[in-house]
Amino acid sequence: MSAKYKFPIIKCILLCIAIGVWVSFIFGNSLQTGNESGALSGQVVTILQMWFPFVNQLFSYEQLQVVVRKAAHISEYAILGAMLWSCWHCIIKYQIYQLTSHKYQAVVKHTFTNRECLIISQITFVFASFTGLVIALVDETIQTFVPARAGLVSDVWIDSIGIFGIQIVLSLCWYYIRKRKVVGKL
């Protein structure tokens, strides 16, 4: 394997390590008791009320605490979704390159065709989404064993908003940027 191919592998390994650290952070939050988790949400609510006084007119303290908790779910899983998308994208792009590189023996730098870009985007989305949903299900299952916590199906749906939302944006951006590069070279 030439030096040209080592960078994607190292990038994938580093992304996997980052994903492991982030999933540990998510699971660590799930292992907090209901009181600990509520106290943390309460601190965030208090800060929001100090910085944005108009929030007090829109929401009660309890409502704002629910909004903060659900926003935390979406944020955690949007970050995870971006990491998963990047990791799977790296792996899939490398694999498709390996499968199609025989067609481009004379080309120094491989440029993916529009069709390959679309396939890479779609496969990346499916694999990263599935991985993210499995992590969300495990996360909610962990919460069922923690005192004063409950694993909720609605939280998995909220987590999936973060996962799917960021991945749709990343997939579309990558596809259209690559498509423009391919069209520009014609």
Task: Characterise the protein shown here.
Helix content is 80%, strand content 0%. It is mainly α and 186 residues long. It has one domain. Helix 1 (6-30) packs parallel to helix 5 (114-143) and helix 5 packs antiparallel against helix 6 (153-184). The chain is elongated, with a radius of gyration of 21 Å. It starts with 5 loop residues before the first helix and ends with a helix.
Helix-strand blueprint:
Blueprint: H1 6-30, H2 34-51, H3 55-58, H4 61-100, H5 114-143, H6 153-184
Helix pairs in contact: 1-4, 1-5, 2-4, 4-5, 4-6, 5-6
Order of helices and strands: HHHHHH
Beta content comes to: under 5%
Number of domains: 1
Largest sheet: none
What sort of overall outline do the alpha carbons produce when their principal axes are compared?
A: elongated
Contiguous low-pLDDT stretches (5 residues minimum) are 1-6
Q: Count of helices?
A: 6
E-strand count: 0
Could you write a compact summary of the structure shown?
Helices cover 80% and strands 0% of the residues.
Properties at a glance:
186 residues; mainly alpha; elongated; 6 helices
